[in-house]
Amino acid sequence: MSLKRAATATHSRLPVNILSHFVKISKRVDELHEHLVECLTMPTSPTIQFEKKNPKAVISTSLGDIEIRFFTDDAPRHVENFLDLAKLKFFDGTSFHRVIPEFIIQGGDPQSKNPDRSLHGTGGPGFSLSPETSNRPHRRGTVSMAKVPRTEDSTRDVSDSGSQFFICVEDQGSLDRTYSVFAKVVKGMNIVDQIVERPRDDRDNP
């Protein structure tokens, strides 16, 4: 493909093999009537495709595709940040490091590439985004920004969101108007369900 650059998504670790979610991102620039195609330097070429109008992403995994649609009006900074990080290969090789049945799957942490599993869930891009909360509820399939503890002993702060995100497996009304909802799954929740059911350790890391 033309204009190749690397982009990524997260992957879910299986007990034996690492299940990788590789992505490539395609961005339509309507006013120029052309496509910019972003693809991975990875062994396979599943895709993330982004369009400026009615934007969506398709995260392809070895279990199948998860298609998400962005809420650019509700969380424009978070949508832009997600896509910018993908273009920079920030998510390359990361995993869904936190999976909790009937709750969420969480990914986007660069530390999840570290062999030291105690560091998984502690990383980010080195900056934080201000919350963009809205009245969009946290329903099954909602994609929202995760908060990261500032220190090992601290609680999660709503402002400490930079790259980690989660997908709700079930409705989670207690999270409404606290976390920044920036997308939703429109196809592939069966894949999310398979990921959340993976065996995991006492830190919910599969």
Summarize the structure.
By secondary structure, the chain is mainly β. Helices cover 10% and strands 25% of the residues.
Describe it.
Helices cover 10% and strands 25% of the residues. It has a 7-stranded antiparallel sheet. With 206 residues, it is mostly beta strands. The longest helix has 12 residues, at 76-87. Mean pLDDT is 74; it is low at 1-47. It is built from 2 helices and 12 strands, in the order βββββββαβββββα.
What's the average pLDDT? 74
Structural category is mainly beta
Shape, please?
Answer: globular
Sequence of strands across the biggest β-sheet: 6-7-12-10-11-9-8
* Gap from first CA to last CA: 34 Å
Rg value: 16 Å
Number of helices: 2
Give the low-pLDDT segments.
1-47
Q: Approximately how much helix is present in the residues?
A: under 10%
Task: Tell me the strand percentage band.
Answer: 15-25%
- What string gives the helices and strands in order? EEEEEEEHEEEEEH
Biggest sheet architecture: 7 strands, antiparallel
- Oligomeric state of the chains present here: single chain
Strand runs, count = 12
